[in-house]
Design a protein that fits this description.
With about 210 residues, this protein is an alpha/beta fold. It contains seven helices and six strands.
Length: about 210
Amino acid sequence: MAFPVSPQQRVERLLEVVRDHKSPLILTHDNPDPDSIASAVALAQIFRERLKLESKIAFGGIVGRAENRALIKVLKLPVVSLSKIDVADHDLFALVDTQPANGNHSLPKGFRAEVVIDHHPPRDETFEAAYLDVGGDYGATSTILVEYLRAAGLTPTPEVATALFYGIKSDTRDLVRQTEPVDIDSYAFLLPLCNKQALDEIEHPLLPPE
């Protein structure tokens, strides 16, 4: 369920929870798709520009599909394998496009997610988070992050805008599957901000001979 408050109120509540921390770690779900990757980099931009906090972004598993690898490579997104991260170096953990009880993320036992943002239906354990925004009428978690950026008065960087656009496009199958009006509005907002050449390279990646 989404909070029954405006995006502006949700963003301010999010910033209030994160404000006194120094080293956020944002986790996608394992084997991340474009929606999860895009949501993570957008959340990192919000933390950076509103709170002057530099986040690490990590995933468990692998980035399998050629398009997903191209998304990270072409846009030079700072997304790395969790195996390269010392989780104990961080004092705040955020999950995007997944939830604590889902079993498809790699936040180690003993560490609790204080921020959970996901367009999928809520799980009971999610309500233990200090900040949660889950469920609601969204076709993609990227759409929630677009609302946050706009509510925070921030313009996504071309890289973040392109990632979010592709996140919405892929999760809704070109606005055909489980698409809500807010997804369409976000899609239209992002389109002029995208790097069109990069988007073409992501959608049509060069494949190795094998």
